[in-house]
Design brief:
Distance between the termini: 71 Å
Structural class: alpha+beta
Radius of gyration: 35 Å
Strand order of the largest sheet: 1-2-3-5-4
Largest sheet: 5 strands, antiparallel
Oligomer: single chain
Number of domains: 4
């Protein structure tokens, strides 16, 4: 019987033909069988009316019972090919297929001498003296299965003769036969050794030396270690809301070292992802599988796979890999190292903006989908970028201070008890570091001195207001404040012992102290406004400035200046409203309360107007670092303006009525104002909802800055 020419007939013959007939098949017939296999399970099942799993069971059983060594080797290679195709589809499909146990299946197959011989025959190079010479000096008795690739299986082994005085271990990447039908894959594989030749560069530490390549395989150094994907799977737990600086430091440093070396060799990666980085036992990164993945060039069908989010959009669209394409991958890797999860659209996740805004600014400068919009703020090569990265990493560390690693709920509870949120000391530490780094006045300085001054002014105003309110409340309780300095000042100025030097002279004639019941409304509202005002400014505005938009942005500049004015008014306005009612005339407190709520409305309105304009301008400028549509945080922040307007109107109406004596429920109103301030604004809006709003405002300011420099 003549040997069948197509996979359909051959696979049927494997079930039915006697072993003697199968031994009549030539080497070319087995090549034809392997090459003609479908690359996806659905086509396989439709064509052969049998699933991969069903055929694998039958073929594995045939392999076990065969005694003829040559035939056994070819059938074993068929089993390995089917397993590789199944793994490839699992890697390329959204849902994936159940995996298989390579230790139980693939490794024993390759250890079989007959299978090793079949690999030697069927993967023998067809042309190229260098490839044939390397192939002939492989010790096929040392071949071992290593792992599967997207379109390949990878073996390890040793050569027959030493290389440079040593007998090294190599990696042999064999393209799975059905993929060889695609000319793109054959050309890329054949030219791999020439394209990534490192001859004359013996000291490279982060790249793998390629020995030779042919249409069907690539022979290269074997690197001992684990993939970065495996390391991250072990090190990263569930996505949190705190950026992992430890991983960013260790892995980020090494990543920039590796990319700098790649750049110095004049090479581009094109498929930089955790699966294509080997972490050696010494912690060094080795970049492997250089070149655009066949899946992204559409040479191989399927979805983009788990590593597709690291590949630059222009590469996915079919363009050549460039330095800026690799920069996109570097930025996405840094996002992963942060341990806060990744976004499907590739934007930097919100926790970066709320917890590490300095790093968010750096990373989003690498990850814009348009290569023209990358490196707008941080220009230069990889060595420059490594220095910038370490500077921004140090800035985040300094800004955090010695914050202990508490669970999220406990950290939130602790922060709830800190009206200033530690922002003044944070800004002071950051300013000192920026001065040491020499970037205060540069583009990278990010207005740090400006923000520090206003943060300190806000803190000083808060301490002044709280001190006066608390001391005056103690006086209403007829308690001695126990301050000897005040006693000395009383003697020096001739002030009676029951009065406060200088300040009591400001009191209206009908403002009695002590008077606990009569002064309770002003003390209660003053204290609640002081606490809320400090958290409002320090939590939302102390670390950002709309002035990042620049002075030539037209209407956006006008909105930025308006928002900046109202934001910075929050540093002194609360104390200016609290002190008159506390020190001069207590009857003013309802009107001053209304003025305070009017300010809150104006601050919310101006910040929201700037935010919307900044995001709109960024989108119109083509920046992809901001999402299209309406983000959840923006919807939440949009509600603050009408809520504060309604509150201000109510406070004005009731305040005027109380001031004029038309309403007498003063205590009920004061308790209501204090409750709304503490429960609604402080605990909810500025507590539970603070982080996403702050992250959104930071994102808007950074978007305005990037739009300015595009």
């Amino acid at each position: 019987m003549p040997p069948p020419a197509r996979a359909d007939a051959m696979l049927t013959a494997l079930d039915d033909a006697p072993d003697g007939e199968l031994r009549g098949w030539r080497e070319e017939d087995w090549r034809a069988l392997l090459a003609d296999l479908p690359t996806d399970g659905a086509t396989f099942a439709a064509r052969f009316e049998r699933t991969w799993d069903e055929h694998l069971v039958r073929t594995a059983a045939l392999f076990t019972r065969l005694e003829d060594a040559e035939l056994r080797g070819y059938v074993g290679l068929l089993v390995l090919t089917l397993q590789s195709l199944r793994h490839s589809e699992r890697h390329r499909s959204a849902g994936g297929l159940p995996g298989h146990d390579c230790d139980a299946v693939c490794r024993p197959l390759v250890r079989d001498p007959a299978v090793r011989e079949a690999i030697r025959r069927l993967y023998r190079p067809g042309g190229g003296e260098a490839a044939r010479a390397e192939w002939d000096h492989i010790d096929f008795s040392t071949l071992e299965f290593h792992r599967h690739g997207t379109t390949s299986f990878i073996l390890t082994g040793r050569p027959l003769r030493p290389r440079q005085g040593q007998l090294p271990t190599f990696a042999l990447k064999c393209i799975v036969y059905p993929f060889l039908r695609m000319p793109t894959i054959g050309r890329a594989t054949r030219s791999y050794a020439a394209a990534y030749d490192l001859t004359g560069q013996p000291d490279v530490q982060h790249l793998v030396h390629v020995w030779a390549s042919d249409d069907r395989w690539i022979l290269m150094d074997f690197v001992t270690g684990e993939t970065l994907a495996e390391l991250l799977a072990r090190e990263l737990g569930p996505a949190g809301d705190e950026v992992r600086l430890d991983l960013l430091d260790g892995l980020g440093r090494e990543l920039f070292h590796a990319m700098a070396e790649l750049d110095r060799c004049g090479l581009r990666h094109g498929d930089l992802s955790p699966s294509n980085i080997i972490v050696t036992t010494y912690g060094t990164f080795k970049l492997i599988d250089l070149g655009v993945n066949y899946l992204y060039t559409h040479a191989v069908t399927g979805v983009r796979g788990p590593d597709a989010g690291y590949v630059a959009p222009e590469v996915v669209a079919g363009e050549d890999a460039t330095r800026k394409a690799d920069l996109y991958s570097v930025g996405q890797l840094l996002v992963t190292f942060g341990g806060v999860g990744a976004e499907p659209d590739g934007v930097v996740p919100d926790p970066y903006y709320s917890d590490a805004p300095e790093l968010a600014r750096f990373v989003e400068d690498l990850t814009d989908r348009d290569p023209r919009h990358r490196q707008l703020i941080f220009p230069g090569g990889y060595d420059d970028l490594r220095r910038y990265f370490l500077d921004e990493l140090a800035a985040v560390r300094v800004a955090r201070g010695d914050r202990p690693a508490h669970p999220t709920w406990l950290r939130g509870l602790i922060d709830l008890c800190r009206p200033l949120l530690g922002m003044p000391s944070r800004q002071r530490r950051l300013w000192r570091l920026r001065r040491k780094q020499g970037v205060r006045g540069s583009r990278r300085g990010a207005h740090v001195r400006w923000l520090l001054g206003w943060s300190l002014l806000s803190a000083a105003s808060w301490y002044l207001a709280i001190t006066v309110v608390v001391i005056w409340w103690l006086r209403d309780l007829n308690l001695d404040w126990g301050n000897q300095a005040i006693a000395v000042l009383q003697r020096l100025t001739g002030t009676p012992s029951d009065q406060f030097p200088y300040l009591d002279s400001l009191r209206a004639a009908d403002y009695p102290i002590p008077d606990l019941a009569g002064n309770l409304p002003v003390r209660l509202t003053a204290l609640s406004f002081a606490i809320v005002a400090a958290r409002y400014y320090q939590g939302l505005f102390a670390g950002i400035t709309p002035l990042a938009a620049g002075w030539r942005a037209g209407g956006l500049t006008a909105r930025a200046v308006t928002a900046e004015v109202f934001m910075r008014m929050g540093t002194v306005l609360p104390v200016l409203l609290i002190l008159p009612a506390t020190l001069v005339e207590r009857r003013w407190w309802p009107l001053l309360t209304a003025v305070g709520m009017t300010y809150v409305f104006l601050a919310n309105w101006s910040a929201y107007a700037f935010t919307r304009a900044a995001l709109r301008r960024a989108r119109l400028s083509g920046l992809s670092t901001v999402r299209g549509g309406r983000a959840a945080w923006l919807t939440s922040f949009a509600q603050w303006t009408p809520a504060s307007l309604l509150y201000a109107v109510c406070v004005w109406v009731i305040g005027v009525l109380i001031y004029s004596g038309e309403l007498a429920d003063v205590y009920f109103y004061a308790c209501g104002v204090a409750t709304v301030n503490i429960a609604l604004w402080y605990a909810i809006k500025l507590g539970r909802n603070l982080a996403p709003i702050r992250a959104g405002l930071t994102r808007a300011c950074l978007a305005a800055e990037r739009a300015r420099h595009r």
